[in-house]
Amino acid sequence: MGIGTKCVQDGYRPGNGEPRQIPIIQSTTFKYDTSQDMGKLFDLEASGYFYTRLQNPTNDYVAAKIASLEGGTAAMLTSSGQAANFYAVFNIASCGDHVVASSTIYGGTYNLFAVTMKRMGVEFTFVSPHATAEELDAAFQPNTKAVFGETIANPALSVLDIEKFAEAAHRHGVPLIVDNTFATPVHCRPFEFGADIVTHSTTKYMDGHGAGVGGCIVDSGKFDWTKYADKFPGLCEPDDSYHGITYTEKFGLEGAYITKATAQLMRDFGSIQSPQNAFLLNLGLESLHVRIKRHAENGLAVAKFLQGHDKIAWVKYCGLEGDDDYEMAQKYLPNGSCGVVSFGVKGGRAAAEDFMQKLKVAAIETHVADARTCCLHPASATHRQMNDEELAAAGVSPDLVRYSCGLEDAEDLIADLKQALE
After folding, report:
1. Residue 107 above 90 pLDDT?
2. The 400-404 sheet, strands edge to edge
3. How far apart are CA 124 and CA 397, in angstroms?
4. Is there a contact between 284 and 206 (Cβ–Cβ < 8 Å)?
5. Which of 88, 105, 178, 241 has the fewest C-beta atoms under 10 angstroms from its C-beta?
């Protein structure tokens, strides 16, 4: 099936006389006739549900759809994109381990890695998304457990060379984790270029309406954990908390990673997406293939307008000819990128903030990538915890405005930008 058909049809197929729409199983618990029946679930000897903190049927329907869209073998929903990125890394890296990450990642993710997870004993080395193969190799350590990057960085909008990062990761026997939030599987499927794990903030384009916070992790099922069993004992050695089950033996390469993340991390941290939010997410997924094209069309139109305006210092949009990442975008995003445009207003930070206050269609929000156009000054908001050196490494200048094109008419967005600038 094509990607559009998958957006509409996959994940849930009703039987005769069953609900056409995914049912919302808004229940914390599930009944069983005997303790033995429930015990099999706790021992991972049977499939089923016993407590929504770990799994819920509504969530699993939607996770299955996203797995299909990405071309993966298993997926799980989380309460947010932050939770998804944390679980994705912490599932294979713990105290004393090391991870290589692109420097131009979302500010919240950078803080998660550089501050919070560092306090947990996981060290990160940040490299340029344009690093050479030699520079990438130099970043690895004997205790490196993963490589992390974003398909389209937020808000730097640099495009990750997925194949190069995947090759480097695989040379050192570790998986590549890619946050594919901005591109969505409609415009890029990182597994096709060698990535091993994909994450999403489903809050963004997948939901598309600013209605529900959520995240998702998808496993390609292709990384051979057993080949590097000494690096990944959590997957390749018995888990004492589940009576000695070895995940790779019990669930194979296709299911080991997600099963471990569910059985251990979701059990202990409990960052579950609510069934109601999963239902809203599915409504968004049903139109994702239509919406993302309009977002990208608006993004390109706005980028072209800004590029020619005398009060704009610079424009960053990978779909714009002449952009530093244009050729990379043609390789990984040939059908369009996203609706987010980053640009600088002449006059620096003060001019950028003054311009934003004059916008009438676009709202100033700590959000991005939904039906309504919004904008943000990252240096004052999502990235304000960074110092000037860290901001520069993340591709965030003091004058940067992140402008997220919604589904409005491009002509109206351009008119609004024009009046605010003039």
Report:
1. no
2. 312-316, 340-345, 400-404, 374-376, 363-364
3. 23
4. yes
5. 241
Average pLDDT of span 217-223 = 98
Cα gap 295→219, rounded to integer Å: 27
- Return the sign of the alpha-carbon dihedral for residues 294, 298, 300, 301: positive
pTM here is: 0.95
Cα separation, 107 vs 386, in Å, equals 8
Which tens digits make up the pLDDT trace of 37-47? Answer: 888 888 788 88
Tokens at residue 2, please? 């094509």
Sheet strand arrangement including 144-150: 74-78, 215-219, 197-201, 176-179, 144-150, 98-102, 123-127
Q: What pairing do the DSSP bridges indicate for beta strands 215-219 and 312-316? A: unpaired
Determine the Cα–Cα distance for residues 94 and 401; give it in Å rounded to an integer: 36
Q: Which amino acid, residue 328?
A: M
What percent of the chain has a predicted confidence (pLDDT) above 70?
Answer: 99
For the chain, the residue count is 422
Q: What's the rounded Cα separation, in Å, for the pair 89 and 99?
A: 8
**What mean pLDDT is predicted for residues 107-133?**
95
127: part of which helix (H) or strand (E)? strand 123-127
Distance CA 294, CA 336 (A): 10
Q: How far apart are CA 161 and CA 409, in angstroms?
A: 32
- Report how far Cα 318 is from the mean position of its chain's Cα atoms: 18
Question: Distance between CA atoms of 225 and 227, rounded to whole angstroms?
Answer: 5
Q: What does 352-408 look like in DSSP terms, one character per residue?
A: HHHHHHT-SSSEE-S--SSSS-EEE-GGGTTTTTS-HHHHHHTT--TTEEEEE--SS
The residues near 15 (Cβ < 8 Å, ≥ 6 apart) are none
- SS3 label, residue 342: strand
Dist. CA 356–CA 354, nearest whole Å: 5
- Amino acid letter for position 249: E
Rounded distance between C-alpha atoms, residue 22 and residue 62, angstroms: 9
Query: Beta-carbon neighbour count of residue 406 at 10 Å?
Result: 21
Please choose, from the candidates 210, 215, 174, 207, the residue with its C-alpha nearest in 3D space to the C-alpha of residue 80: 215
Residue that has been written with the tokens 């990944």 in this structure: 232
pLDDT at 79 over 80: yes
